[in-house]
C-alpha cells in the first residue's frame, strides 16, 4: 500500500496535494476511505472522467476504499468550476435518472461488492436540508471575501455568477464534512479545477470536528491543439456504448497525437510504467503500434476484452496493421487479426429513399454521423465527408443503388468515424 501514491505520481496523476508527506503517509495505512464526486448533468460519463476513475481503481487495488458520490443534490445547481457560463437547469427527474445511469456505469470499473466501494447520492443529505439551519450551521464558517478569491469564482465574475452557483462551494464542502462524519473519509480527489472546493471542505471539517482532512487534484489534460481532453469532432467521447460505440471509442484513442501516447498509456491503461515509457518513445511508424495498444487497452477496460478485440480487428481490416514494419513486445493481450469488419457501426434506412435518390446531406444526418444538415453541408465544404471512401465534392450529390456494394454503402466523417448503411 505504501507505494500507491508513488505509483500515481509516476503515472502522472498527481497535480497538487494539500500536504504530500501527510497524504503519502495516510495512503500507507491499511485501508483509507477516499471520496470522488461526479455531476449527473448527463446520462453518461465521458473520456475526461476516466482520469479520476482510473485513479480510484489504482487506489482500490492497493486496498483503499472508494466512496463515489453521484451529485443528485449538487447536480440541481451545477458546478461553476471551469465553466464560462451558467449550466442549463435540469429537472429533478432528469437529475435522478442520470444519477441512476452513472451508478451502473461506474460499477464497470469499481468493485462495489460487500465491504468494498460505497456509492452514494448526495441528494440523501442535501435534499432534506433546511435553509435557515444550513446557513446557521454551515454558512457561518465561510468567508465571502475568501470565496471571492477562488479561481473559478474570479473567472466568472466578469461574465456574471449567479447566487445559485455561488452556493455550490458550500454544498460540496458540506458533502466532504458529511462523509468525514459518517464514513471517516478524510481524503478527497478531483480535477485541478476542484482545488478551491476541496480546500473549502477541508476547512469546514477542521472547524466543525477538529479533524485534519486532505486533498489530491489531477492535471487538466488537453490534446496537442490545447483542446480539452475527451472531445472529438462529434463532441464528447462518451463511456456509454449507445452514445459512442466501442469501435468509435477505439478510434478516439487510436488517433492520439504522438507526443501524448506515453502519458495516455500511463494514465488510461494498467500496463507497467516501464513498458509505457518504452512504447511512448517508439519512432514513427512503430508509434502507431503503441497507439493500437493504447486503444485496445482503453476499450478493454471500458467495454470488455471481446469488444476491444472486435474494434481492433475492424480497424486493422479497414486501415491495415500498424506494426508491419517491425515487432513490438508488450504485455498487452492485443490479438492477432481475425474475424470481419462487423464491428463498424451500422444503420438501416428506407430503401424507398434510395430508389428515389438519397440526398447526401440527409443521408449523413439520418445515419447519425452528423447532428444536423447544416453541419453536413459545412463538412462537405471542408472536404470532411466520404461515401465509399470517395470524398463528397458537392452538397447536391444524390446517392442511388449504384453506390451499394455488398448490400451497403460506407459513409465516413473525418478520418475514422464510420457508418455502414443498409437499406430495407
Structure description:
The chain has helices at 4-11, 20-26, 50-61, 92-106, 123-126, 131-137, 144-147, 151-157, 163-166, 168-183, 195-209, 246-254, 261-268, 273-280, 287-303, 305-319, 351-356, 360-366, 373-381, and strands at 16-17, 33-38, 65-70, 118-121, 187-191, 214-218, 231-232, 235-236, 346-349, 358-359, 385-387, 390-391, 398-399, 408-413, 417-423. The chain contains 19 helices and 15 strands. It is α/β, with parallel strands linked by helices and 424 residues long. Helix 12 (246-254) runs antiparallel to helix 15 (287-303). Mean pLDDT is 85; it is low at 82-87. The strands form 5 sheets. It has a 5-stranded mixed beta sheet. Strands 1-6-5 form a 3-stranded mixed beta sheet. It has a 3-stranded parallel beta sheet with strand order 2-3-4, sandwiched between helices. Helix content is 42%, strand content 14%.
Amino acid at each position: 500500500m505504501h507505494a500507491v501514491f508513488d505509483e500515481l505520481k509516476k503515472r502522472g496523476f498527481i497535480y497538487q496535494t494539500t500536504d504530500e508527506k501527510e497524504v503519502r503517509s495516510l495512503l500507507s495505512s491499511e485501508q483509507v476511505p477516499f471520496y470522488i464526486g461526479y455531476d449527473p448533468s448527463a446520462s453518461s460519463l465521458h473520456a475526461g472522467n476516466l482520469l479520476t476513475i482510473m485513479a480510484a481503481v489504482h487506489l482500490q487495488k492497493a486496498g483503499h476504499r472508494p466512496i463515489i458520490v453521484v451529485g443528485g443534490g449538487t447536480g440541481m445547481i451545477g458546478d461553476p468550476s471551469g465553466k464560462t457560463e451558467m449550466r442549463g437547469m435540469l429537472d429533478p427527474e432528469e437529475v435522478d435518472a442520470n444519477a441512476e445511469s452513472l451508478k451502473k456505469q461506474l460499477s464497470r470499473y469499481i468493485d462495489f461488492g460487500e465491504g468494498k466501494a460505497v456509492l452514494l447520492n448526495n441528494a440523501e443529505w442535501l435534499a432534506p436540508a433546511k435553509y435557515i439551519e444550513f446557513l446557521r450551521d454551515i454558512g457561518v464558517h465561510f468567508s465571502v471575501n475568501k470565496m471571492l478569491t477562488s479561481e473559478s469564482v474570479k473567472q466568472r465574475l466578469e461574465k456574471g455568477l449567479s447566487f445559485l452557483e455561488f452556493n455550490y462551494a458550500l454544498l460540496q464542502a458540506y458533502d466532504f464534512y458529511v462523509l468525514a462524519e459518517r464514513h471517516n473519509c478524510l481524503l478527497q480527489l478531483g480535477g485541478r479545477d476542484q482545488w478551491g472546493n476541496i480546500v473549502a471542505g477541508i476547512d469546514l471539517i477542521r472547524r466543525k470536528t477538529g479533524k485534519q482532512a486532505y486533498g489530491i487534484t489531477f492535471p487538466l489534460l488537453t490534446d496537442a491543439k490545447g483542446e480539452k481532453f475527451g472531445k472529438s469532432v462529434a463532441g464528447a467521447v462518451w463511456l456509454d456504448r449507445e452514445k459512442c460505440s466501442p469501435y468509435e471509442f477505439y478510434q478516439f484513442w487510436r488517433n492520439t497525437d504522438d507526443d501524448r501516447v506515453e502519458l495516455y498509456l500511463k494514465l488510461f491503461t494498467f500496463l507497467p510504467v516501464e513498458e509505457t515509457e518504452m512504447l511512448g518513445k517508439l519512432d514513427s511508424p512503430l508509434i502507431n503500434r503503441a497507439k493500437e495498444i493504447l486503444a485496445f487497452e482503453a476499450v478493454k477496460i471500458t467495454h470488455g476484452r471481446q469488444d476491444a478485440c472486435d474494434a481492433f480487428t475492424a480497424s486493422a481490416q479497414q486501415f491495415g496493421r500498424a506494426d508491419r514494419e517491425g515487432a513490438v513486445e508488450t504485455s498487452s493481450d492485443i490479438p492477432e487479426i481475425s474475424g470481419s469488419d462487423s464491428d463498424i457501426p451500422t444503420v438501416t434506412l428506407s430503401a424507398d429513399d434510395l430508389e428515389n435518390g438519397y440526398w447526401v446531406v440527409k443521408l449523413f444526418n439520418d445515419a447519425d454521423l452528423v447532428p444536423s444538415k447544416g453541419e453536413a453541408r459545412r463538412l462537405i465544404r471542408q472536404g470532411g465527408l466520404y461515401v465509399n471512401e470517395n470524398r463528397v465534392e458537392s452538397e447536391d450529390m444524390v446517392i442511388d443503388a449504384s453506390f451499394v456494394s455488398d448490400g451497403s454503402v460506407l459513409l465516413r466523417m473525418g478520418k475514422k468515424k464510420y457508418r455502414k448503411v443498409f437499406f430495407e
